[in-house]
Amino acid sequence: MQKRINWLYLTLVFCLLCFSCDSKAVYDVYKPVPNSWNKDTVASFNFKAPDTINNYNVYVNLRNNSDYKFSNLFLIVELNYPNGKIIKDTLEYKMAAPNGELLGTGFSDVKENKLWYRGYSNDFKFTEEGEYTVNIQHAMRNNGEANGIVDLQGITDIGFRVEITQK
């Protein structure tokens, strides 16, 4: 019986090691959102450029739950280069199917969304060595209202991910 338990334990550890490794990820960090995402709250991510040679895919990652009541999401994403250059984008992402079911992966009411930021249609390279900063802020509004939603419900974590592309 003891040998069987040891064998099961070793098999479990081996499976965890094999499936939990992510060789493509160069940077992958999440920041929790307490209660709600205030319109003035900016999630900032600082990282060093991996290199200036390879191509990368860059993502905004979000975890949301059933408290998220919208079919889309508008974000303002700012990429700050080491030399001071800033690229600022307003991006829209689809977050729910037409029937209202939340998109993303996950088994419970928490869904994880890997949203393209750079590298999807054009190759993306870090053109400068040094520290980059990415700032992410929501820009949600109710239809017909000029003022934005102050506290966005349902977003539980904001993340940023850089992956090396497959050659």
Summary tags:
globular, Jelly Rolls, mainly beta, four-stranded antiparallel sheet
Set down the secondary structure blueprint.
Elements: H1 2-20, E1 25-32, E2 37-38, E3 43-48, E4 56-64, E5 72-80, E6 86-94, E7 111-118, E8 131-138, E9 151-152, E10 155-164
Antiparallel strand pairs: 1-10, 2-9, 3-8, 4-7, 4-10, 5-6, 5-8
Overall description:
The protein has 167 residues and is mainly β. It contains 1 helix and 10 strands; from the N terminus they run αββββββββββ. It has one domain: Jelly Rolls, CATH 2.60.120. The strands form 3 sheets. Strands 1-10-4-7 form a 4-stranded antiparallel beta sheet, with no helix packed on it. The longest helix has 19 residues, at 2-20.
* Count, helices: 1
DSSP helix fraction: 10-25%
SS-based class: mainly beta
Overall form = globular
CATH topological fold name:
Jelly Rolls
What is the topology, as strand order, of the major beta sheet? Answer: 1-10-4-7
Number of β-strand runs: 10
Based on CA atoms alone, the radius of gyration comes out at 19 Å
Q: Give me the CATH architecture, please.
A: Sandwich
Highest CATH level, the class: Mainly Beta
Largest sheet: 4 strands, antiparallel
Q: What proportion of the residues form beta strands (DSSP E)?
A: 35-45%
Ranges where pLDDT stays below 50 over 5 or more residues in a row are 7-20
N-end to C-end Cα span:
47 Å
Mean pLDDT: 87
Order of helices and strands: HEEEEEEEEEE
| Integer count of domains | 1
